[in-house]
Write a structure and sequence with these properties.
heterodimer, A: mainly beta, OB fold (Dihydrolipoamide Acetyltransferase, E2P), five-stranded mixed β-barrel, 42% strand, B: alpha+beta, Arc Repressor Mutant, subunit A, 2 domains, three-stranded antiparallel beta sheet, 12 helices, 12 strands, 43% helix, 26% strand, nucleus (chain B), Rfa2/RPA32 (chain B), DNA replication (chain B), RPA_C (chain B), NA-bd_OB_tRNA (chain B)
Amino acid sequence: MDTSNPAVIVNGAFMTSYVGRRVRTVIQVVRADASGVTGRSTDEKQIVVKGHVPSPLTTFVEVIGVADSPQSIRAEIVTNFGDSFDTNNFNQLCQHANGDYRHLFI
Amino acid sequence: MMFSESQFDTGSQIASSPATAAASRDTVGLVPLTIKQISEASHSGDDKSNFVLSGADVVNVTIVGMVSNIVERNIDVTFTVDDGTGKLACKKWVNEPVDKLLMEEVKEGIYVHVDGHLKSFRGERHVDVFSVRPVTNFDEITFHFVACIHNHVRTSKDQKMQGNGTTTSDSLNSTPHTPIQNGMNGSKSAPSSQVSIPFSVDGLKGFDQMVLAYLQLPENYGNEKGFHVDELAQKLKLPKNKIMESIRALEDEGMIYSTIDEFHYKATSSS
């Protein structure tokens, strides 16, 4: 087993703390083109995703990659998460995974 | 949701699981864990075949993550699951046609829900898979991590109780200490007043115990109005804010309830 390269669960706000690190988040797609995706994080912030994305995209996608700024991710993997996703639950999970229970994740 | 899959599990579970694990498997259920947590579990037992995490046995685990490195062989399929906290090898023995059907759905890059037996072979940990299925509702991933946190909170609470010495480890093992188990046990035989006893020690701090013990005294339990918070503070010689904290904790546990107003409380059962 290997825990050397984790991807931290983040929302828009937590991106700031992990610039240069591997992160994972779920966004609602606002606009997609050849260069990537612009989306809205679960805490209503804009996130730009650069890199290869699957086609077609569903309403929600998960992005795993390196945060190269507080608002953008260089994507390694973009996964379709379907057209309905509980963003509030995910946002709460972000708080826990970066708060008291951080040690369970990274 | 663990049980919803049991109908699929039964066949392969018997076929693929070693006899040595059978005894210990009865003691704990499926434990939802992050792979980071699994990496931190330590070995226990003489043959080092068992795992312990935060003092609790870990035998069967649930993990949810993305599949990679699928390798098919004659009698088994191995793959890696990455849940974002780490990567863990999984092995599914393929004995029956149904196992083959199950594995046909598992493809590179998809998210799967895996239930299996945590094992160690030549120092490497892996999951001996009972059941694996693709995740189709992605809220399940959020749910899994919330379940991991919940499980962690519950087991740490149990540990804290043992540490405090409010109860011996023997009685901990013999008395049910989760509400669900309690409910199941209670429905069998125990009268309701006894069922509440494990509750009364479950993770409650010293002050909580004092407040509860006072309210449960038979002469106080008889008081229909209950007791005013100020009176409790006075009688127990505790600061009011501590009383309020305990009141909230006890109310959450269903041990006490408010009576004529939000300042009067009464125990749900007598001591």
